[in-house]
Amino acid sequence: MQSINPLNGEVIQNYTNHTFEEVSYKINAADTAFQHWKTTNFESRSNLLIKLAEVLRKRKQELAYLMANEMGKPLQQGTAEIEKCASCCQYYAKNGPDFLKDQLIQTEAQKTYVSFQPIGVVLAIMPWNFPFWQVFRFLCPALLAGNTAVLKHASNVPGCALAIEEIVREAGYPKDVFYTLLIDAKEVEKVIELPQISAVTLTGSTEAGKKVAAKAGGLIKKTVLELGGSDAYLILKDADLKQAAEICVTSRLINSGQSCIAAKRFIVVKEVADEFIRHFKSFMESKKVGDPLNEGINIGPLARLDLRDQLHQQVEKAISNGAKCILGGQIPALEGAFYPPTILTEISADNPAYYEEFFGPVAQIYVANDESEAIKIANSTSFGLGGAVFSNDLKRAESIAANDLQAGSCFVNAFVKSDPRLPFGGIKESGYGRELGLFGIHEFVNIKTVYIA
């Protein structure tokens, strides 16, 4: 396994994969540790989460550099990611114990209540695009609930994966409560088969999710899947168009466009389409592409050269099928896996781009005849992760967000983002289950009914 800098193609470090015997040993150790860890009190678990937040903040700059070098994230975005991880630790340290308190329910019995019990070792299969946040948003509630965990991270960020294990140890957690597994994707099925694995959480592509769900389902093991997205943002005729365009561009270019919940499709009603597109293009043109270690850079290299080339092929295919490229669309004359901010318009329903997820700084703009058609276009894909509505009629926009858009998260006059306080997840082929908030911590516990006659 290698860590390769997408800026220049240089090998940062070579890593030796864990053998399956080593993997089995670590999972056995995590299962044994679970027997004690589940009996520790909430005060002890909360204190360790607080310490975890302190370690993250202490190492914030170092970890941001690690992300920049391993997967191209601009430094400022990297430090923000670590801060978000620390805030998640603090949120569950403060609120997790209340979320897991017994819930009394009045029945004819002397006493009836719901108890929340940890279930064991949870396998996390995580992606490279937010190499710390994706892990910590699962890990914080899992550990607070009394579970133990093992991580199979993306193969291009082994340095981040091992750093997470170091951070957990440095915070004072028992050694066997958490392990990183350096294994290839082809070995995941064998890991899921191990009887010590109680559940699986995956953030990744829809195809990866289908394989994991099928395998775990055949073994009756719980899964939570956060999969691909092609988030649709609706811009209505009464929206503040300049502000909407700025927010939309910010969302499209989060993490250099490599985010499941980045805005990807912008559906604007025709009365205001020209003005919105003018503002949108201007904001896209203003973004700086370059070395993620340099100050003021908005877009670093994509995580791997093959991913950049795949994105460019999607753009070329979209254009060959009738789409119009009004910005970007060409591989720049820069060393590294760079791709410029790109805008595609005039995408018909028979264009492959209409149904695909573009994982990079490529925006699709659709012009709808009216609000009703805009909603129809938004819902016409297999994805259902997030969506947004821009309008000065807040009551109407809220109604569309709450009742009409088919997605797990819908925002009004803001871009979609995950927040430790709010449940996060998708519907349709964007996955199932929820992370974060009250609902997230209840995914990997036994919700047990206790009845006393």
Please, could you describe this protein's structure?
With 453 residues, the protein is α/β, with parallel strands linked by helices. It folds into 2 domains: 2-227 and 428-452, Aldehyde Dehydrogenase, Chain A, domain 1, CATH 3.40.605.10; 231-412, Aldehyde Dehydrogenase, Chain A, domain 2. Helix content is 40%, strand content 19%. The chain has helices at residues 20-37, 42-58, 60-71, 75-99, 133-145, 158-170, 188-193, 206-218, 241-252, 273-285, 305-320, 371-378, 394-404, 437-441; strands at residues 2-4, 11-14, 103-104, 111-118, 121-125, 148-152, 178-180, 197-203, 222-226, 231-235, 263-269, 324-327, 342-345, 362-368, 386-390, 409-412, 431-432, 445-452. A 7-stranded mixed beta sheet has the order 12-13-14-11-10-15-16, with helices on both faces. A 6-stranded mixed beta sheet has the order 7-6-5-8-9-17, with helices on both faces. Strand 15, helix 13 (394-404) and strand 16 (409-412) form a beta-alpha-beta unit. The N and C termini lie far apart (58 Å). The mean pLDDT is 97.
